[in-house]
Amino acid sequence: MLFLCTGNSARSILAEALMNAENPAHFRGYSAGSFPKGEVHPMALDLLRREGYAVDTLRSKSWDEFAKPDAPKMDFVFTVCDNAANEPCPIWPGQPMTAHWGLPDPAAVEGDEAIRRLAFADTLRALRNRIRIFASLPLRSLDAMSLRNRLAEIGRN
Prior knowledge:
This protein is an alpha/beta fold. It has a single domain, classed as Response regulator (Rossmann fold, 3-Layer(aba) Sandwich), CATH 3.40.50.2300. 40% of the residues lie in helices and 10% in strands. It contains five helices and four strands; from the N terminus they run E-H-E-H-E-H-E-H-H. A four-stranded parallel β-sheet has the order 2-1-3-4. The longest helix is centred in the C-terminal third of the chain and has 24 residues, at 113-136. The radius of gyration is 15 Å and the shape is globular.
């Protein structure tokens, strides 16, 4: 499962860490960006560490890594920012199911440190809720159209 954002420094990174911690037996999460910043936002890393998530393998990377024929096979690709959702995406090997789960960018929030940290915490909470709802779906019993609708509905909540 691939989470996409433009910079791959905050939202998609948070989603990758959450997916791998909360559903390791069923799903493998990855993240990437169309124009990766090259580093993970320090507040994202700090929050994940404080919440007990592994951060040692997290890195900001291009979505080109996942469009190659030898890339891990993705069953699902989720955009978590509006910019990435509106960009022309690569053709993903295996034609995974896609959905948009857009959230405001916590890295773009201005204000004092407490306000910025709260933005990251809110984003983590929203992603955690969406990932838990996704993980509870009866994937084997849903037809493709029903699954697409459910994935889109999760992104609207």
